[in-house]
Amino acid sequence: MGSRVLHISKYYYPFSGGTEQIARDVVLALKEVPGCEQLIFAFDHGSPKESKDSRDSVDGVDVIRCKCFAKLSSQSISTTYGRRLKEAIDSFKPDAVILHYPNPFAAHYLLKLLKKHPEIKLVTYWHLDIVKQKFLKLFFNGQNRKLIERSSKIIATSPNYVEGSPWLSSVPDKCVVVPNCIDENRLVIDDEVRQKAEELKAEYAGKTVCLGVGRHVEYKGFKYLIEASKLLGDDFVIGITGKGPLTDELKAQAAGDDKFKFLGLVSDVELRARLMTCDIFCFPSVTKNEAFGLALAEGMYFGHPAVTFTIEGSGVNYVSINGVTGIECPNGDSKAYAEALKTLASDTELREKYGEAARARVIENFTFEIFKKNIIELMAGL
Predict the structure, then answer these.
(1) What is the distance between the alpha carbons of residues 314 and 282, in angstroms, rounded to a whole number?
(2) Mean pLDDT value across residues 259-272
(3) Do 33 and 97 share a structural domain?
(4) Total number of domains in the chain
(5) N or C: which terminal CB in the chain sees fewer CB atoms within 10 Å?
(6) Helix residue spans in the chain (DSSP H)
(7) Same domain assignment for residues 161 and 13
């Protein structure tokens, strides 16, 4: 493995996002390799009016952040990015670069700079295909081809995504599956969590408690969970955390269904207590925008069966296995989803069997120790 690794992420901690957390996990994994030096390059995550060029340190690793003056289709735009990236490569002299994709603006400059540095190994961390922005998807097809050609290795988060992506499936020999990992430290059960859990048990005594966690956006599929809830009896209670652009629309859809609860943004203590006390974990995502499902893995870690939809090419159905850790339903079929919830609610033995298998699957595949081993082996083999 190269002794100097440059990480290129869209944003970086303290920005909170799935890709950014994975980027940090990679850095923390490689910190344990003796002699490995690291540098992180990202956009500043402040608003365009507040954004600025800066350099700071996270977990003892330097982070260069570039001023963002505008955003186009969720892509940050910076006038200083190309120059500062060149300076970083020239001064840091990386042996390897890990690019977290999608990040087309960064990829544009990186590919140009790497032409002058054929000795630098490129690892592209392919989090998901660009599927929503149809124009950008077409515009960057050429860039994707160049990225794939230049990459020594491409990291995918599940074998399902390799098979389902038109890009990754074209180069299976370059792809290495490194599943995402949960943060076990964030999920510790302490006295405060236990106390809150006891309160929730008392509040929902005699009910089958179902929980969904996630931002209220289209691909999370909460509208299908609401439809399923309306087909269930009053012996159920279904809660979803979070908020988002669809919150008001979802509340209007759920009006009159008293069993459906909008929990809002909850504290870490309350989240752990709800994960601890629910009976079934609901993960109704419906598109490949849900590339993996860390929240799903967290729910399974607490020993609960999961109910999911079939999403072609997504890692969701790799994280939870139909008939082993939960029940998988035809995509968008609210009636089938309701029937799955009824099946699990009425069969304690099945619920416990799936729940035990769910926890075991997470511990065996989706912890930081497993992630660290996978990343270190990958980088050592470049």
Answers:
(1) 17
(2) 96
(3) yes
(4) 2
(5) C
(6) 18-30, 81-92, 104-114, 134-139, 141-150, 159-164, 191-203, 222-229, 247-254, 268-277, 294-301, 316-319, 334-346, 348-365, 368-380
(7) yes
Residue 284: the pLDDT is 98
Query: Tens of pLDDT along 27-48?
Result: 999 999 999 999 999 999 887 7
Is the domain of 300 the same as that of 343? yes
Nearest-CA neighbor of 144 among 120, 168, 161?
A: 168
C-alpha closest to that of 157 among 63, 343, 297: 297
pLDDT in tens, 3-34: 899 999 999 999 888 899 999 999 999 999 99
Instruction: Specify the pTM.
Output: 0.91
Containing 317, the helix (H) or strand (E) segment is helix 316-319
Residue 123 belongs to domain with CATH number: 3.40.50.2000
Residues 102 and 161 in one domain: yes
pLDDT tens digits, one per residue of 118-146: 999 999 999 988 765 555 555 678 889 99
Compute the C-alpha angle 272/274/280, nearest 5°.
Answer: 120
Does residue 227 sit in the same domain as residue 294? yes
32 burial via Cβ count (<10 Å: 0-12, 13-18, 19+): exposed
The answer on 296 and 198 residing in a single domain is yes
User: In this structure, are residues 63 and 40 in contact, taking their beta carbons and an 8 Å threshold?
Assistant: yes
Q: List the domain range (segments joined by +) for residue 138.
A: 4-181+367-380
Q: Which two tokens stand for residue 316?
A: 């969701």
Shared domain check, 203 and 274 = yes
